[in-house]
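Hi there,

I know you've been waiting on this one. I reran it after we fixed the sequence typo, so this is the corrected version. Both the input and the resulting structure follow.
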Amino acid sequence: MAKKRKEGTEEEELDFKFPTFDEEAYLKRERRNIKTMFISFLFGLLLAVISFGFWSMISKDLPRFELVLLVGVVYAFSFKYIFLRLHIDLTGFGKKGWATTYATYFFTWLLTFIVLVNPPFFDDEPPHMEIAVLPAVQEMGGTVKIVALIIDNVGVNKEGINFNMVYPDGTNHTPEFTFENSIFQYTYDTPNPLMGTYNYTMNVKDVNGRAIPPITGSFKYNTACLQITSSINPNIKSGDPIVIHADEKISTDNFLVYYTIDNGTAINVNRKETTGKSEYETSPKYQGWTSDENQTVRVYAQVSHYFINVREAFNNTIEDTSVYNFSTGDDSSIGAVQPLAITDLNYRLPQLRLISGTPGFDLAIVLVAVIVVGIFFKRRKKDNTT
């Protein structure tokens, strides 16, 4: 019985015949696939140009990329009509053929559209500017720095920046400034500044002439932006508070108050948490003070600013024009405590944050990721079935 079964199996194996390869049908199918892919590629290019026209006409206040994306998706449903009008035989085209057609069209349209709506083909974005005044209020004899970060997708030249100032006496001035590596800098430095408010106006446009609305601001000179407000009693002790007041316009998080004793030791001052940002407190308990002495105190402040994606601190110093004379009592605790170290506030430097200027690019990445994941799981499912 075993022998007969074996012979039967061999006969069945010998009866198997390979299917006949239809070369003509294969070539016809491949030509059809190449033709449909080429048509979808050309259609993607054409629709990208049309979408670019819609993009340039739609207001920036509307969700432009979403509307243009909707146009691209809607027009994708016209492929069947296009193929039929071109007398393309869709017999056996199947899901794979349609998936290849739509993918070729979509990625051609998306990539071409993104290229067209960005420089050098199109510039729709005015410059971006951040500005800081260091400090907003200054003592007589001090300097004021105006710094700004100006960035643009096509670039800004110094000639595209117009900087104008109006002094407290009403006179107009166009001072000289520097602009290097996207950083605008101007320093107002005069031995005898006018008391009052200085107003400035900045107009910025890129190399293509796209401008931002005028930026205005001001700074002041007065004699009370930094001062000791507590009473100066004779023979002060180590625990007697010395309160320093800073103008609220300059007392920010990136702000450091300190003082020197007899133009020597510099002592950091702590902010009073109970009275807000403008009050700072110290006492003669810190090193640098000596007991039973007449000592001269000068008060200073450092204000700093950092721009996004710029690893550089911009600083300026305020010096109180008043000089304070203290007399300390006979107290062994005077000068016994080490003060906090004077720093340049670099520890407050924020983390870098990237700024994306490509419209809708994040959404495009999400769509591509969804499509790739869908194809991956579909193939995996097919392999498991096989």
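Quick highlight: Helices lie at 2-14, 23-57, 64-75, 79-85, 94-116, 361-385.

Best,
R. S.
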